[in-house]
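thread: overnight batch results

M.L. [08:02]
morning all. the overnight job finished for the chain we discussed friday. pasting input first so we're all looking at the same thing
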Amino acid sequence: MVRASTAVTIGVGATAAVVAAALVQALGDTPAGKALTAAVPTEYRALIEEAGETCPEVSPNLLAALLQQESGFNPKARSPVGAQGIAQFMPSTWETHGIDGNGDGRRDVWDPEDAIPSSAKYLCTLAADVKDVPGDRRHNMLAAYNAGPGAVREYRGVPPYKETQNYVRTISTLADQNSGGGASTTEQGAVVVRAAREMLGKPYSWGGGNATGPTTGTCCSPNGSSGATISGFDCSGLTLYAYAQAGISLPRTAAQQYTVTEPVKPGDLRPGDLVFFGKTPAGIHHVGIYVGRGLMIEAPRPGLNVRYAPVGSMPDVFAFGRPKNSHSKEI
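M.L. [08:03]
and the structure it wrote out:
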């Protein structure tokens, strides 16, 4: 849940507003299905199914997508700006909107039995708060959860903040994807995506990750962040690991991984393909794993965890690639 205090610091011009609006326009007004078909931890399934029926604007798949994006289903998650728990409530928001979901006499933001139904109830409250705002009601509700209902009313729809636009697009796409299946894929691509999904929520660690899983990293990133005490992945460590599970060996860095891929046209992308970011082949600085419907899984940067993100969440997409067969090995 992104705080309004974060959002208002983002400078937005007319061009940015148009581009941002276009990111969510294509998703339309399609409701998520009411049956829970998303992959969620077993211990939270019943909670999500029940809470996902709180109001017509919320569904179990939508709630599951929101919790995945907020915390990766981690009930102990704490953001750098102070958001807490599986649903990432700020303390002030929890004080107003948190409920005693399990009836034990306490409202505990760290207890999923309280936080998950509170999240659904808060979504319903926000849906009512912005019901008269033009545009897609689901998008406006999610934007209000992320940036606050005031911003949605001010901009008469999803506000032109890049982070909020990406948040709305990612959760809406995941909810719809869970309801209706995804694109076709090769067997190895499916293995790559499944392996990456299993690492959602793992910490970013500069230099972290190898073919066997998360590892402590090294020092230091260009901004001075050290992974030496953090077990997790950097961007290329995650892709190296995911492809190793499919029997494909990749080099260590994103730029090196680009050199062992075949080019893929945007219209030919399939789950498991790699998305490279940079301005030149030698200057590639980031890589993600395409999972379908405009989304990728990435290890983004220090302080954040492995997550879903729109492919266009960074402005310098350089190329799409599919690892060459010559770099395959027997599983």
